[in-house]
């Protein structure tokens, strides 16, 4: 019994992964974003943060977790995504395809 304890006390434990994102999110504050799913009119939203794989927006309801959505960020072409989490008026979205680097730079530099 004691032997099991002796061997396990020296085993290294990997740290917990608190952040499971593929890419770092960058803070942005952009009021000209719209979100829409296939059955509704576009809803006004504010882009809060952004990575090349997804974003977080502030929106007053209308979108549910799992919804397929289209985002327009600062007049961009529609970006297809999936709503992956929602908490209050915050909505986390994962883009279907990696965001164009030029658009990413444009959106993150507007915050400087």
UniProtKB/TrEMBL annotation:
Gene3D superfamilies in the cross-refs: predicted glycosyltransferase like domains
GO molecular function ontology, one term from the record: cyclic-di-GMP binding
Protein origin, superkingdom: Bacteria
Residues in PilZ domain copies: 19-105
Record protein name field: PilZ domain-containing protein
Organism: Sphingorhabdus lacus
